[in-house]
Structures are given as structure tokens and as C-alpha cells.
Design brief:
CATH architecture of the largest domain: 3-Layer(aba) Sandwich
Distance between the termini: 12 Å
Order of helices and strands: HEHHHHHEHEHEHEHE
Strand order of the largest sheet: 3-2-1-4-5-6
CATH class of the largest domain: Alpha Beta
């Protein structure tokens, strides 16, 4: 049944969605996976704790950049490409399994169904690995809702900039400070979804300062 869309999204022809913390309640398993990969490679708990803090403050940046940052800036060792690739593969193996059973955020499924019925253009722009996301959404039979699914290693800002070329009337939905910063840089409208964010208080504070709308969960918007 086609229902009238809520005012917060009805005027946009295109909706761009982040993935972790927006589509999937997946931030916590990502935090755990990062820690387990680093600990399994014999790095100290203090180094891992420093990295997890950095990771939480930089949601939206790809794992490729984060693992490189860990080597260069936290461990302060020469960059080791073999180690980098090994950690990426180990992390990807964990994520692929977890995504297949991860819960969708509350209210996401009815929202995406209605957006699809209203023939909105729907894109994913994520810091997560692009191939991994396409595999997961195909396996979970949700890929048909999206015009395209994009992710790392291409930076999220570049992804969104390319989408805007053909789809200027858009709303970007994200859960991180990085997402909000990208929206400001590109001068596009933004919806802050804070209920699953690693930094909900700071996200809310910045969203208020920028006059961006804020939701805890998609279920709050309802359908008329």
C-alpha cells in the first residue's frame, strides 16, 4: 500500500543513506571487529583502545584509511602493506558474517519500502567496503531497493559528489560527525540519525548548530 511520505523526506527526489548506524545497527560489531583484528595481530590493548577512540570519532572514513592510520600514527611504524592487507581481509571476513545477521535499524524497512513505492532514487554512500555491501544486500534480498550501492575504498565525499551530478535534489542521512561535515562541505540537506551513532551527543549538538533535523530512529517519523 502506497502511503503519503512524511514531510521530512517527501520533497526530495533522491535519498542518500549511510549504512552503519543508519541501515544496520552495526556500529557495535564493527568496534568489536576492529579490536579483535588488532589484538590478534599482537598489538597492545592501549594501542587498540587509542585506535577504537579514533575510529568512533571518525565514522564514515574507510577501513583502508583507518588501518593505515593505525600503523603510521598510533603504532608509529613504517607502513607494512602485507600487514595492512592481512588485517583488511580478517576484518572483512568478520563483517561479512555479521552483516548477514545484523538487525536493521528500527523503522528502516517500512521506510525503504515506501521510498521505493514512491519511486525515489535511493543510494547507499558508505565508508564500508563496496563489494562487501553489494554482496550482503544481494544475499538479504534488499539490493533492488537501491539505484546503486557505493562504498570504500572511494572516499564518501567523492561518492556523494558524483551522485549529485545527476541527482541534485537530495537528502543525505547519516549518523556520524564526518557525515554531517560532508553535508556542510557539499551544501546539501542532512538528516542526523543519532539513535545508533557512536557519538550521539556531539552529533545532536552539531546538527542543532547547523539547523539540521534530528531523529533517534526512523520509526519516529511515522507514515500518514
Amino acid at each position: 500500500m502506497r502511503i503519503k511520505l512524511p514531510a521530512i523526506i517527501e520533497n526530495y527526489q533522491t535519498i542518500i543513506l549511510d549504512c552503519d548506524g543508519v541501515i544496520f545497527d552495526s556500529n557495535r560489531f564493527k568496534n568489536k571487529a576492529f579490536a579483535e583484528v588488532l589484538l590478534s595481530n599482537k598489538f597492545s590493548r592501549s594501542q587498540v583502545a587509542t585506535f577504537i577512540d579514533y575510529h568512533k570519532r571518525n565514522g564514515g572514513i574507510s577501513r583502508y584509511a583507518k588501518f593505515e592510520f593505525f600503523q603510521r600514527e598510533i603504532v608509529k611504524q613504517p607502513f607494512n602493506e602485507v600487514l595492512h592487507q592481512s588485517m583488511l581481509h580478517e576484518f572483512a571476513d568478520q563483517c561479512r558474517v555479521q552483516y548477514l545477521s545484523s538487525s536493521f535499524t528500527e523503522g528502516f524497512v517500512p521506510l525503504i519500502q515506501q521510498l521505493h513505492q514512491h519511486r525515489k532514487h535511493i543510494f547507499i554512500a558508505s565508508g564500508s567496503d563496496e563489494g562487501e555491501l553489494r554482496y550482503v544486500f544481494s544475499q538479504r534480498n534488499f539490493h533492488h531497493y537501491f539505484n546503486a550501492i557505493y562504498g570504500s575504498p572511494k572516499p564518501k565525499e567523492e561518492i556523494i559528489k558524483s551522485i549529485l551530478t545527476d541527482h541534485p535534489n537530495c537528502l543525505f542521512v547519516g549518523d556520524s560527525i564526518i557525515d554531517l561535515a560532508i553535508a556542510r562541505t557539499l551544501a546539501i540537506d542532512f538528516l542526523a540519525l543519532k539513535g545508533y551513532s557512536d557519538n550521539p551527543d556531539e552529533l545532536e549538538k552539531l546538527a542543532i548548530e547547523c539547523s539540521y533535523p534530528i531523529l533517534n530512529r526512523f520509526s519516529e517519523i511515522g507514515f500518514e
